[in-house]
Amino acid sequence: MKRTVYLKKKSLEEAKEIASTLASLIRLETETISVPQALGRVTAKPVFAKISSPPYLCAAMDGVAVKAELTYGATEESPKILNLGKEAFFINTGNPLPPDTDAVIMVEELYRIDSQRVEIRQSAYPWQHVRSIGEDILVSEMILPENHRISAYDLGTLLASGHLGIEVKKKPKVLILPTGSELIDPYTSPPNSFKIIETNSYVLCARILQDGGEPIHHPLVEDDYDRIKQALHSIPEEVDLILILSGSSAGSEDYTRSIIEESGEIFVHGISMMPGKPTLLGKFRQRPIIGIPGYPVSAVLAYEELVSPVLYQALGLLKPSRQKIKAKTIKKIPSKLGVEEFLRVKIGKVGEKMYFTPLPRGAGILTSLTRADGLVRIPPFSEGLNEDEEIEVELLKPQEEILDTVVMVGSHDLTLDLLANLLRRHYPPVFFSSHPAGSLGGILALREGSCHVAGIHLLDPDSGEYNLPYLKKYLKEVEVRIIHLVFREQGLILPSGNPKGISGLKDLTREDLLFINRQKGSGTRILFDHTLETLSIDPKKIRGYEREEFTHMGVASMVAGGMADVGMGILSAAKALGLDFLPVAKERYDLVIPSAFFGDRRIQRLIETIRSEEFKTLVLQMGGYDVSRTGEEFTAC
Question: What whole-number distance in Å separates Cα of residue 521 and Cα of residue 527?
Answer without folding.
Answer: 10
